[in-house]
Model the fold of this input.
Amino acid sequence: MTATPTIQMCRTCGGGAPLDAHFCPQCTKILTLGRQGDYFSFLGVPRKLHIDHADLEQRFRALSRQFHPDYFYNASPAERRASLERSSYLNDAYRTLRQPMARIEYLLELEAMGVGSSARTGISADRAKDVPPALLEEVFALNEELDEVRELRASGAPPEVWRARLQQARQPIDAKRDEHERRLEALSNEWDELAERPDTAEPRRAVLGTLREQMLERNYIGNLLAGIERELSQ
Done:
């Protein structure tokens, strides 16, 4: 088994630096962006699902100033490249961690339990084998309602009639989404509590597994609501 690196090497002076360092402690040059870290450690925040937004914003702005390419205009090509890499990575990290749902998905990816791109885009609501079991009843009811709405529209029914049917059909889906928001908040609290305690690998894994299931269902719900919006736009 390959050991996880604990330091990164400065390509300017050859010295070692902690993985979360941005500048070499020996020569003070900006460090080339490595592949060992993650968004949390890059911004210096704990790997938790509740983050102090004011602190995150302050860290982002401070690092933005330090990495800005203008400060490296006369530096070596390696330093200019490092500033661009770190600036780009910083922007990606900030965009991800400031959004609660993106933060959960990123944590799951870090812990090798990612929901996968198919869960975020392009799930077909009429393929029963793809439907999360907890949503089967809502999906079947919605598909039946959508078929009837399409028939109404094709028969020339007034828009207010079939639009009212669509708005009514989305109510249980909206309720399901609100329920998932509450569950995700509770699970996030549970993760943060476990993250502060040692020897909690198994409970943490269990929480991550439940988080993954909830995110898969939530993303599917988002696709169902998007389908209703598409019908409303007809």
The longest helix spans residues 159-195.
